[in-house]
Amino acid sequence: MSTASIPEDLQAGVSRVLCFVAHPDDIDFGAAGTVAKWRAAGVAVEYCIMTDGDAGGFSDEHRPDIVERRREEQRSAARLLGVDSVHFLGYRDGYLEPTVDVVAGVVELIRRVRPQIVLAMHPERNWERIQKSHPDHLACGEAVTRAIYPAVENPYAFPELAARGLGAYRVPWLWFFGGPTQLENHFVDVSDHVEDKMRALRFHASQHPDLDRMNAAVRGFLAANAARGGLPAGSSAEAFQVVPVNTEATIAGF
C-alpha cells in the first residue's frame, strides 16, 4: 500500500482504540510505546487477549497457576500504561483458529467499544523473524480481519448481536503489527515512551528468563524500526501496517 493513502496525522479524531493480541505480553512487545503515546494524548485504549497463555513460560513451578499469573502480569502492565479495560477471551494457548465463534466474539467487542482504530497482530507470516508469526498470532490477525470486513459493518451479520443492541459499526482504521517488514507503512516515534514500554514488559517476568537480554533486544528492535522509518538517528519507533477500512479513501458498502 502506498503511504500516500495514509494521512500524516493519524491521531486526529481518534478517541478510542481497541487492541487484539493472541497472548499476554504480545501487546507490550508490539505496541506498548504507541499505547503510552495514545494514553498521554487522552485516547481511551482497551485490550483483548484471545488465549489464556497456558503454554507460555519457562518454569515448571509456574504451571499450576500460569493462566492467572499471566493475566495478572498483563493487568499490571496495562495499569502502568493507563489502560483500564483488559478483556480475556480464554482460548487455549496454541489452539487459536479464526473460527466463526472466535470471529463472533471479536465482532461483539468491536461493536460494543466502537473504536476509531482496531489494532491487531498481522495475519501474514514474517519469514525474517518467524518468532513474530506464532500460529496464534496469525489466527488473531485473521479473525480480526474477517470480523472487521464485512461482519462488523454488515447489519445482517450476526443478527443476535443486533437484537442485543449491538448494531453494525464501520471501523475507520485497522492497524497491524508483527507482519512482513515490506508491508510496513507507518512508524510511530516512541522515543519519549521507551521506558514506559520496558517497564510494561518487565511485568511479564514469567516469560523472560533473562530480562537484561530481553531489554537489549527490544531496544535494538525499536532503533531498527526507526531507521527503516527514516526517523532521526537515536530515535525509537514501533512499526505498523495501517489499512484504511472506512475513510475518505475507501468506498462505503459491504
UniProtKB/TrEMBL annotation:
PANTHER family to which the protein is assigned, alphabetical: LMBE FAMILY PROTEIN, N-ACETYLGLUCOSAMINYL-PHOSPHATIDYLINOSITOL DE-N-ACETYLASE-RELATED
Transmembrane regions: none
InterPro entries in UniProt: GlcNAc_PI_deacetylase-related (IPR003737), LmbE-like_dom_sf (IPR024078)
Pfam families for this protein: PIG-L
Gene Ontology process terms (BP): glycoside metabolic process
Organism encoding this protein: Arthrobacter subterraneus
UniProt keyword annotations, A-Z: Zinc
Gene3D superfamilies assigned: LmbE-like (3.40.50.10320)
Highest taxon of source: Bacteria
SUPFAM superfamilies, per database record: LmbE-like
Name used for this protein in its record: N-acetylglucosaminyl deacetylase, LmbE family
Any one Gene Ontology molecular-function term assigned to this protein's record: hydrolase activity, acting on carbon-nitrogen (but not peptide) bonds, in linear amides
